[in-house]
Amino acid sequence: MNKKDIFIIHGTNYKEMTLQLLEAAELAAAIGSTKKHIGLKPNLICAKDPSLGATTHGELTAGTIEYLQKHGFSHITVMESSWVGERTSRSFHAFGYDRICDAYGIPFVDLQKDSYHTYDAKGMQINVCDAAMNVDFMINLPVLKGHCQTTITCALKNNKGVIPNSEKRRFHTLGLHKPIAHLNTVARNDFILVDNICGDLDFEEGGNPVTMNRILGFWDPVLCDAYVCDSMGHSVDEVPYITMAERLGVGCADTSKANVILLNQDTFTDSRPRFTRRVEALAGYTAPKDACSACYGSLIYALDRLRQAGKLKKNASPVSIGQGWKNCPGKIGIGNCTSCCSDFLKGCPPKAVDILRFLEEN
Ligand code: SF4
Hints:
The protein is α/β, with parallel strands linked by helices.
């Protein structure tokens, strides 16, 4: 196990992708004894279909349970606490998590109803639910998505689901960043399996999903969230809890030192993603021809950063992207497939942060 590893797999068979990624990461060997109690913490923030970009696709949870059971682990618990204002029991029953737990014979703990204790989280006293603290190994299953207050949310902030509702309210009064960083010094985050299938553009409750069709794996939650910033075209400095967590010793935010393990290539799928009006407006600045999902999604995130900065020009030439641009001349292109464009950005796929820089310069 190398804390700097980042596993990336593309596709649309999400359960099979989960199994392949966990095998590649050799998760079972990292956990060790099959007697250990494993916790799974998806993001069920509210009772919304994962296709809307807020909640973890059930296939990732099912694939993880299947992988663990295949490797002899039997003491597994799925746990979550939805956000304040939503009953976890509603989220659990809304889109099949109850059926997944039944099918694999796995218990689900509603952390909104759990007991809790207070821990010294490197200088902050924080209440954490007992079920989450009682596991020997926690697999975090967050969604890569935007957040209206913290800019992005993924591994570190998903742990807010292991504290009682009263503590969540207190976190908001404290401005979120500092308590999130401190929480992660005590709440386990041993492996992170990121749902990067269609996370939301900028809102934790979903509504504007950006299709990427990827699953990512990390051992380090700080590296995970720093990589999410790169993937959405943000700087780590825009998300203070990441560098705060790094300073507290939770992990390393330097993605330039990461060891990226690409398990397959991104592919073009015939089925065009369903765009909402906001994403469609950004897509209007592009000229896609057979673009792979993660490539196109990265461009959408970069265009949204330009929009936020007031730099999207109405009459700008559309940005070429996709395998259909191979050997075709054009003006501005994103990705290796557009190498015949007058100006193009290398990468397959390039990250949103690099696309943003390139488009700003051009
Ligand atoms: S550069 Fe081409 S092949 Fe590579 S991810 Fe983008 S569209 Fe796909």
